[in-house]
Amino acid sequence: MHFDPRWKQEFEQTRSGILQSCNGWVTQVEHIGSTAISGMIAQPIIDIVAAVDDDQHREQAIEESSTLIEGLYFGRRQPPMWAAETIVLEKPRGGDPTHRVFLTYTGSPFLRSALLIRQRLADDRELSLRFETTKVDRWRHGEGDPNRYAADKSVFFAHVIEQAE
What is the mean pLDDT of residues 111-139? Predict the structure, then answer.
């Protein structure tokens, strides 16, 4: 879809719900993915990364936060290979997702990479246009298979991260 300015509002509402429901465990909630980049075409799924900031009780914080986020009508999903260190929750629990939360911890490699990619795409219009072209091409090439599409995009992201380093 073409960029929809309502995506930012959807993110803000979801962010507020996560922060309020997680009893202080989650301290950082960021809008990532193509819906976070003004002007970019995107699948209409609000991608979010939520992070707990409690090294001493990290596992407990992540587990309790995931249960609390599930209470916001999210369901757990198997994380993709490129996000194996996260807990993935999607809304609604059944059907096509409209929101996806990657739950992790502050300073995690996933969080750092997601924010780096978001920043690079927002700052570099040429890069974001290349990414749009790649997404459309990969979607067609993969005949709409979401797993193949995600794997193909991860190659592009790895290249963006490598160039930034």
Answer: 92
* Phi, psi dihedrals of residue 2, rounded to the nearest 5°: -70, 160
Reported pTM: 0.92
- Report helix, strand and coil shares of the chain as percent, to nearest 5: 50, 20, 30
Measured between alpha carbons, how far is 164 from 161 in angstroms, rounded to an integer?
5
Long-range contacts of residues 15-18, Cβ cutoff 8 Å, at least 24 apart: 15/48, 17/72, 18/48, 18/50, 18/69, 18/72, 18/101
Q: Residues 143, 149: contact at Cβ < 8 Å?
A: no
Q: What is the spatial distance between Cα 43 and Cα 27, in angstroms, rounded to a whole number?
A: 27
Residues in the chain: 165
pLDDT value of position 136: 86
Please report how many Cα atoms fall inside a 13 Å half-sphere around the Cα of residue 153, on the Cβ side: 24
The amino acid that residue 11 corresponds to is F
Pairing of strands 46-52, 99-105: parallel
